[in-house]
Amino acid sequence: MTTANQRIRAIDPIQPPSALLLKYPLSGTAESLVNSTRNAISNILHKRDDRLLVIAGPCSVHDPKSALEYAKRLAELRQLHAADLEVVMRVYFEKPRTTIGWKGLINDPDLNQSFNVDKGLDVARKLLLDINQLGVPAGCEFLDAVTGQYYADLVSWGAIGARTTESQIHRELASGLSCPIGFKNGTKGDVDIAADAVIAARAPHIFLSPTEEGTTALFTTAGNEDGHIILRGGIQPNYDAKSVADAIKILDKRSIDTGIMIDMSHANSEKQHRNQLKVGQSIAEQLSAGNHDIVSCMIESHLVEGKQAIADRSSLVYGQSITDACIGFDDTEDLLATLAKAVQARRQCQAR
Ligand SMILES: O=C[C@H](O)[C@H](O)COP(=O)(O)O
Ligand SMILES: C=C(OP(=O)(O)O)C(=O)O
């Protein structure tokens, strides 16, 4: 008996990123959408563009068909509100769990614990390409340090989640990602760790990572100037004006000039999806009153409101979340209109 791999049950090779990139190459449409959106987001974060970045979409993607239908509907709203909002679809394939549970489409695309990761990566890349082809930019959470190699070229904005913001590995990863990156405050509400993450990711790092060909290499990153914090609540919500002002003090102390994103869901909604409307209303009021520190927000929304238990694909409600509960599309439509009006009101404040 050797001393290595004593707790490893299997090692199954999968395709390297280069194989998938060859199968679904970046199209000209996607390339220009991703580049222009990253630019627009950077300008919003650094307050060179007075619009609001809105990341809206399902808590997790489990069914590419409904995700694509959502993208088609969101494409219309993106166009409609383009003067006031930069709308990006939340396309989350990797789910961090509090303990255990379904870890997302890449990890288990068939929802049956068969863990066909090769298929998951294929479906995820193809879907991102299709969504970009519709003219809708995508935002993803980078949870796994390796899987991004398979699809990061199709991502316009990325998140590091509440459970990983304090992780050095994720900060290093963020320092080399091409898109702007948001860092959530910790699950208990600690905003300092998100501000620390922005500073850490702004610096260059040197670390090991697999290449597109699947070999291990030493990567040297340039650092990511487009890092920002995301207020997602903790022991209590932190979307109100006082919490935003407190967060700004934390950013000022570290000379961080990027604005704040407010996540309407998670601990800010106290996991009651309809509370997102209340959070959205508060954001709209703060913007209308002239707040320039809030530059962005996140909405968990799907075609059908609520959530359902994970089950056999054939018995699932089409277009409804299997992770956190989401608001439905009609409410999303109203919420985006409210936010667009609030941005217009904020402009009027400035003009006065
Ligand atoms: O966004 C989804 C969930 O809030 C997060 O992944 C944690 O989920 P869990 O507490 O159900 O595991
Ligand atoms: C898991 C998520 O959020 P958080 O990291 O804030 O819990 C999420 O946005 O899907």
UniProtKB/TrEMBL annotation:
It is an enzyme of class 2 (transferase). InterPro entries: Aldolase_TIM, DAHP1/KDSA, DAHP_synth_1. It holds the Pfam family DAHP_synth_1. Belongs to the class-I DAHP synthase family. One of its GO terms (cellular component) is cytoplasm. Its EC number is 2.5.1.54. Keywords: Amino-acid biosynthesis, Aromatic amino acid biosynthesis, Transferase. Stereospecific condensation of phosphoenolpyruvate (PEP) and D-erythrose-4-phosphate (E4P) giving rise to 3-deoxy-D-arabino-heptulosonate-7-phosphate (DAHP). This is Phospho-2-dehydro-3-deoxyheptonate aldolase. Residues 43-335 form the DAHP synthetase I/KDSA domain. GO terms for molecular function: 3-deoxy-7-phosphoheptulonate synthase activity; identical protein binding. It catalyses: D-erythrose 4-phosphate + phosphoenolpyruvate + H2O = 7-phospho-2-dehydro-3-deoxy-D-arabino-heptonate + phosphate. Pathway: Metabolic intermediate biosynthesis; chorismate biosynthesis; chorismate from D-erythrose 4-phosphate and phosphoenolpyruvate: step 1/7. It comes from Arenicella xantha. One of its GO terms (biological process) is amino acid biosynthetic process.
